[in-house]
Design brief:
Elements (H helix, E strand, L loop, with lengths): L1 H26 L10 H10 L1 H35 L1 H14 L4 H12 L3 H25 L3 H9 L4 H12 L1 H25 L5 H10 L3 H37 L1
Helix pairs in contact: 2-11, 3-4, 3-6, 3-9, 3-10, 5-6, 5-9, 6-9, 9-10, 9-11, 10-11
Amino acid sequence: MKKILRGYSPVIVIIVILLIWQWSSLFFSIPKWLLPAPTDIFNEAIKGWDSYTHHLVSTTYLSIGGLVIGVSVGLIVAIILHLLPLVRQAIYPLLILSQNIPIIVLAPLLVIWFGFGVLPKIIIITLVCFFPIVVATLDGFRQTSPELVHYMRMAGATKGQLFVKLEFPHALSAIFSGLKISATYSVMGAVISEWLGANKGIGVYMTLAQSSFRTDRVFVAIGFIMILCLLFFTVIMLLEKVLLKGRRHTNE
């Protein structure tokens, strides 16, 4: 019984919150434009499916594209900083400082420079996604066992062999940790980019709903954002299990 409660405790908590929310909306007669009941939000999600399907598809494609580019750039930057210590000492502090600039501040500049097309949106998502990958990957490289590094050097391994056969495989767990964070950030970056100028997407749908005081549609958009984040996170977690399990079997 305890194991069942532990496994389903998040679901139980969510159900309790929804029940309290539903009861409060009915008991206190809260206006729908202020705080709709969960049943109203669910009904809108079902009835309005045709009106926001293309928004959902657009945000999904945009998030995936930005995530792939952001992760690729992050891995390349992390590898360069790891293999070139002098470059790391010069660039890494600047990367940290760049994260102190809110994306919402940079976004208008990107729109001015690159217009309202897909490019500024991809850049925004890339900027959001690549930093967690860089930090996690560098931490993974640093956590490589010094004893194993010394052993491989004694065996005559080159710097390239040391990186490919030891440092990079040992950093895979850290890379996937950063990838999980970047995956959830990609959806957030896509929505922010759509707020600044787009003709479709969950961000656009949310803005239109807000301007017309359709709070139920705002909650529908929030719900789909959460579902997308959970879906991306789950896919990466499953991929991590497959790859790391295969690597363990290979090592064995």
